[in-house]
Amino acid sequence: MKLPIIIPADLELAPPGSRSRLADMLCGEPVLRRTVQRALLSKRAGAVVVLTPAPQRAAAADLLSGLAVEIAAHDCSAPPYAALVRAGRAWGLDGWRGGIGGLCVFDEDANMPALAEWVAQSNADAVAVVPAHAAVVAPDLIDGAIAHYERVADIFGMVFTPAPPGLAPAVFSREFIADMAPTGQPPGSVLAYRPSHPAVDMTGRDACFRPGAVVLETPGRLLTDTVRSFRRVERMLTAGAADWNPEQIARRLRDHEFDAPADGPDEIEIELTTSDSHTSDSILRPRGGVVPQRGPMTRDTMERIVEALREMGEVRVLLGGFGEPLEHPQAVDALRLFREAGRWPIALRTRGLAGDDAVDATLFELPVDVLNVMIDAATPQTYRTVHGIDGFERVMARVERWMLWRVQRGQVRPLIVPELCKSTHTLADMEPFFDHWFARLGWCSITGYSHCAGQRADHAVMQMCPPRRLPCRRLWTRMMILADGCVVACDQDFAARAVLGNVNETPLRDIWCGGAPASLRSAHAAGAYDVHPLCPRCDEWHRP
Hints:
By secondary structure, the chain is an alpha/beta fold. Helix content is 33%, strand content 13%. It contains 19 helices and 17 strands. The chain has a 9-stranded mixed beta sheet with strand order 14-13-12-11-10-9-15-16-17. It has a 6-stranded mixed beta sheet with strand order 5-4-1-6-8-7, with helices on both faces. A two-stranded antiparallel sheet has the order 2-3.
C-alpha cells in the first residue's frame, strides 16, 4: 500500500485565521522544517510531501532545503467550509474535537479539493495528513495510525486519533477524498452526531485509533499557530521534547497546565453595558436590579482594549457581560471597532430582542463570527416564566430572519447558536429545544445554571462539578472586563466584588500578569480556594 504523509502548508495564513508561523524560528529552526523533520522519522510512511499554494512553492523549498521531502503545489482556493471551520473551531482549539458544530482538528488543515487534485495525479492509496504547524507531531502516532488504517481500510475510508491537536495525523483513503471533495463538507462531518440517524459515536468504532490513556485524556493545543500554543511548544522543546514519546509529551501538558500563563488570555469577555430593557430580573442569569449599573463603555475604554488585543495576538472576544450589548448607544460603532481592528474571532451574546435593521445589517456585513442567542425556552409560557416578559415570538422571528439572511447572502457567518440554560424551570423544554434547533441549524447550546457562588438562588437540576476540587482553569485562560473598565477574575462576579484592576488606569497586559491575578492563580495552584471571596462557594471551577 502506498501511503505518503501530506503536510498542507500555507506560508501566509494559518488555519485559525491568524498569520502563518511556518517560517518563524522555533528553538533555532523554522516551524515548517521542524514538522517535516518529525514526519521524516515515520517508519511506515512511503514519503513526505509538502502541499503548498503554487505561488509559495519556492519559499517552501527554501525553508526545507536539504530535507528528503517533495514540494507539491496546488491552485485550489480555500475550501468552501474554511469559514465555518475557522469560526466554529475558534471556541475549542485545545481539543481534537469541539467547538460549534462538532468540528475536528483535522478539519482545520484538510483542504479536500487540493488533496483530491494531488491524489488524482499520484497513485497513492491513502494519505496521512499532518498539520504544518505540528512541530512536535509524534512519529509513533503517525506509524500507529497508518498501521491501524491498513487493518481497517476495507471497512472505513478514514482513521482519526483522539489526541492533543498537533500530536497525531488523520488518514484518508483515495476514495474518501474523492467522495468528500465535491460535497463542500469538512472531513470531520462524518463524525458528527445526527439525531435522525442515531449511531455509535465514531470514537467507539474501528475508524478510531486509540492511543494510551494519558494521550487520549489530555487536552492542549500543540499546533504553533497561536501565540499561546507557540509558547507552549517552545517551552516543551526547550525541556527536551524533541526526544520524547507521545506519553511524555501528554504528561508534560497535564503536569504543567497551571504554570505561569501566557502574556494574555485565550478569551476576553467584554461587557458593553448593563442595560437590558427587554427583561425584568431574570431567573436564569444576573440581570436588572441585581447588577450594579455600569457603563455604557466609553469609546476611549474600547480603544484601550483593542490596542491591547493587537499586542496580545490571537484572543477570542465575547461581547456579553451582564447586560444586552446591542443596547449600547453606539452598538454599531463598537461592533465595527472590534471587528476591523484585528483578525480575532468575535462572538456576540444577545437576547435577540434589542437592536434595529442597522444593527442587523452590521452583524452580517462585518460579519461577527457567532451570534449566541439566549432563548432559554421552547414555549412562550416558559419564556415568560424565566425572563419575565412576552418575547418568545419576537426572538424566534428574529432568529428566523437571520437564518434567511444567511441563505440569501450565501454566508457562513455569523454562526447562529441558540442557547438554553438548563434549570428546574426549563428542564421540560430542553428536549424539544434541542430537537428543534438541531434540526434547523445542526447545533445549539445547552448550558448549566449557575448560582454565581451562592449570590443567587440555586435552580440547578443537579450538581455537575466533580467531587474533588481542582484549580479553576479559567484563571489561566480567560479575562472579563466590565462596562466601566474594571477587570474581574471571572464571570461569576457580576457585582464586581473583587476588582483586579481597571483598563482605564493600567494596561491590560499588566493587569493580566500583575500581582492580584498572579496571587489568585498561585493560591489555586496550591489548593487554597479562599483568597477570592467567591471561590469557596463556586461550582463552576471545572469548566474548560
